[in-house]
Amino acid sequence: MTFPQLIDGKAIAAQIYEELRPRVASLVAQGFQPGLAVILVGENPASQVYVRNKERACEKLGIRSFRYHLPEKTDLGELLSLIDTLNACAEVHGILVQLPLPPHIEERNVLYRISPEKDVDGFHPYNLGRLMVGDPVFLPCTPWGIQELLRRSGIEVEGKHVVIVGRSNIVGKPLAMMFVQKAKGANATVSICHTRTPDLAEHTKRADILVAACGSPRVITGNMVKEGAVVIDVGINRVGEKLVGDVDFDSVVGKVSYITPVPGGVGPMTVAMLMANTVKAAERFFARAGERKQ
Ligand code: GUN
């Protein structure tokens, strides 16, 4: 019998905010305030909550946030022209387009238009390519948050078998790419499973670290995890009035060594890493502005 420890994402995110504070203060002292533009298209209720959380985090840190809430019927041309304006705006150092977009807008066309230097989500192919070759600039926020949760909880990834359930461009694929790197906090053996994987449990049972990022409520159950494994739950699903993860917490918790709760696990880390990327984007912007002056 092992004794599971809850990984407290809120507390670890709070540490990250404290580390960012002096960096923001130093920029502000030089007359530069970091700025994040957040674009929301339509009325998706979950997206509205996420956007509000991101704005609150900006407020807490003294980062300016600019919200653009566009109607559902916005067309691609209008959205691209807003992104062009923000790419050229000196007060905006990070641009985030909240996903999902309405179905008539091809997400790719939008994400590719954001300047890679303002791509604080790390979704532009330039930044994903830099991640792939092991020389990242902006890492996608949720995978980076997971890596930080593990590192700051003293959980070694090197030499471990990490099994990721989910192959999204936002979480599964970039996380696999991060953990497989020859680098600190990585050097893992990684398996990616997905909806077409036969005998999913055969794979998940072999995981030292299991990451559930498939977007369906409670699909990972106790009989699918190895005794003593570490379980990271990326899911946020609304079931009735409750928010539940992709992991069936009650059936898994008695078997594992560490587990993230939902809410309060990975979610706060995604926002914290977005703040970290925004501060980094602002620092890079001001360094370039300084070079231009010389
Ligand atoms: N929708 C769900 N997660 C994310 C995220 O990390 N960034 C953006 N822009 N949209 C999302």
Give unreliable regions as ranges: none
Task: Tell me the distance between the termini.
Answer: 64 Å
CATH superfamily descriptor of the largest domain: NAD(P)-binding Rossmann-like Domain
- Ligand roster: guanine
The order of strands across the largest sheet is 1-11-8-7-5-6
- The helix/strand series, from N terminus to C terminus, equals EHEHEHEHHHEHEHEEEEHEH
- C-alpha-based Rg, rounded: 19 Å
**Total number of domains:** 2
Structural class by SSE content: alpha/beta
Catalytic activity: (6R)-5,10-methenyltetrahydrofolate + H2O = (6R)-10-formyltetrahydrofolate + H(+); (6R)-5,10-methylene-5,6,7,8-tetrahydrofolate + NADP(+) = (6R)-5,10-methenyltetrahydrofolate + NADPH
GO biological process, one term: purine nucleotide biosynthetic process
Binding site for NADP(+): 166-168, 236
Keywords: Amino-acid biosynthesis, Histidine biosynthesis, Hydrolase, Methionine biosynthesis, Multifunctional enzyme, NADP, One-carbon metabolism, Oxidoreductase, Purine biosynthesis
